[in-house]
Amino acid sequence: MREALAEAQRAWDLGEVPVGAVVVKDGVVIARGFNQPIAGHDPTAHAEIVAMRAAAQALGNYRLPGCELYVTLEPCVMCSGAMMHARLAKLVYGARDPKTGAAGSVVDLFASEQLNHHTAAAGGLLEEECGNLLKAFFASRRAAARAARVARDNEAERAAIVAARLAGGDTGG
Ligand SMILES: [Zn+2]
Known about the structure:
By secondary structure, the chain is an alpha/beta fold. It contains four helices and five strands. It has a five-stranded mixed sheet with strand order 2-1-3-4-5. The structure holds zinc ion (ZN). Belongs to the cytidine and deoxycytidylate deaminase family. ADAT2 subfamily.
């Protein structure tokens, strides 16, 4: 999960929501991925999908039997579905996602016998650390938006003062 957190940091560095994933086989990391839908203009470029694509390429197999995927955030419906198609052996996630989590928070696709015969799921590994990274990211984005607003307001105020001076024949000299 520490490796997945390092991937999440790479997403942050590019301005993407910091979620990271790694695929492990026989105790070795065979693929990594981080969330990158904005840069790639790709709504499917979640960390898990990126990592699974890389793992499948590395193994030369469209399925990932015997593989474990570690991801910093509970996967969404799309990623959970892809894990089942890949016949991934095990999912381990960090923070829970109360808005889109499909491994128990909103729905639990992994508990569905009709859908899933292959992938075991476990959550809460380094949960706090994984969640704190996301919280810090969104807090910094809010702070940046606030700073931009203040800068805009200051600019507008200055423009109004200049306009008033000009209207009054006062050029400020
Ligand atoms: Zn996803």
